Amino acid sequence: MTDFKELAIEEALRSELGKTAVFGRHQRDIRTPMNFVLDEAEKQMGPQFSVYWVKTGPPDVFCLSGFSPSPVVFSSRYLSLTAFIRHLFVDDWLKNMLVEVAERTTLKLMAEMALWQGDPDYSVLAFVKSMTGKGIYLSDDDQLMDLEYAPVSEAYMATWFYALVHELGHLNPDHQQNFPTGHLFSDEAILNAITVKLDDFPYYSPSMRQEAVELAKQSGSKSVLAIDHVRSEGLADMFAASVLLQAASNIMRDIRKPFSIPQFIQELIIFFNIIAVIDRCTRVASIASARTADREARFELALQPVALRVRALMQHHYLDSAITMFLHGSDYTMEQYQRVVTMINGINKTNAEIINAVDSGLARAMEFSLFPERRENDRALLEAFLKDFAHSGPGIQETLRFCKMADAIRAESKLLQALKGIVSDSSKSCHRL
Ligand SMILES: [Zn+2]
């Protein structure tokens, strides 16, 4: 790459990520699991990308348009957050209180996103709400160190690379083709799946359904439910599954560790949902941070679960045949195929209860964020927080981390000032004890 091009990319990244961001181009010449995965991605779609790591900056993963190969940006904070949210889906001990812990976790995520979106006041309210009460909360401390030293496994591969490879999937030239009528991914097939999946949401009014279908059909529509958008996301999910299946099974073979297909599928389903949770929290934070009510943004938020159902269906179809082929080669029998379908159905069923509980927690966090008139006033929220956390070491640590993050972003507001005052008083009284 020429120096001039590299500089132009850096400048574009700087304007996207903010002045304080620290980032650099990922080096491909050493043998690491990441390069193993990137080699596999390149094998499947050609040299379409270069990867940039963001060490300090907003939690995000995206492609920067206008350059070839395309820079794909992946922040370590995003990685850390996916690992943090993964706890909701895998920690057995959380099962009985999952709705509440999911509410707290997603509120905290919304608080962080709102800081980046420039609304420290709402951010503080979401943060204090996530920390108030006697319940359990998960620490969102940087998980990177633990992640780096974790042994390579199905979970390791999905945690590190699912989101990144999904993003790379958006650059796959094969996905830009026209899918003819009758194809599983043709416009008609996707629209049909959207209409069917809308029925999973009986509380949507007939006029809302009608509007959703119209939006899906509109050419050039930017909606989450637009046929092109749903297809592109679904194909990127499949690309992630395809690359990770090859890369994970090969790496595990090289290090002489057994590769578990059910475990691998389980992780794919979990990460599909984790990314959906982060996307939802980002959208909620953006609506909550805007000063005026934006009907379109709220409507998009309501349509997002429909798009996810269609994508999950596409992923299910894909995995049914990809896993059968992986296990039995391309001339598999119907019986072998059926066995794989039954296995994947079983894994989906086991996860359904957890996914529903996380959704319920997220719905509560959304209610807090999107309906300010229904929540206690600012002062009451801060006082409740103060009462619970005046003598709590871990709570103070968590709050200090939040304030530090706000400082790094150079956020300033009255409520942030008040929160800093509470923490500084509480930590002084803790030291005295
Ligand atoms: Zn995507």
Largest sheet: 4 strands, mixed
Shape category: globular
The spatial strand order of the largest sheet comes to 1-2-4-3
Helix-strand pattern: HEHEEEHHHHHHHHHHHHHH
> Could you tell me how far the N terminus lies from the C terminus, measured between alpha carbons in angstroms?
59 Å
- Beta-strand content estimate: under 5%
Q: Name the average pLDDT.
A: 91
Label the structural class. Answer: mainly alpha
- The gyration radius over C-alpha positions equals 22 Å
Number of strands: 4
- In helices, the fraction of residues equals 55-70%
Q: What is the tally of helical segments?
A: 16
| Poorly predicted runs | none
Cofactors, ions, other ligands: zinc ion
Give a brief rundown of this model.
The protein is mainly alpha-helical.
Structural notes for this entry:
The protein is mainly alpha-helical. The protein has a domain at 3-78. It contains 16 helices and four strands. The chain has helices spanning 3-17, 33-45, 76-90, 98-116, 120-131, 144-149, 154-169, 187-198, 206-217, 227-254, 261-289, 295-328, 334-370, 378-389, 393-408, 414-432; strands at residues 22-25, 49-56, 61-63, 70-75. The chain has a four-stranded mixed sheet. Helix 3 crosses helix 11 (261-289). The N and C termini lie far apart (59 Å). The model has no long low-confidence stretch (mean pLDDT 91). Zinc ion binds at residues 166, 170, 233, 236.
Task: Considering the chains and any ligands shown, give keywords for the structure.
single chain; binds zinc ion; 433 residues; globular; 5% strand; mainly alpha; 68% helix; four-stranded mixed β-sheet
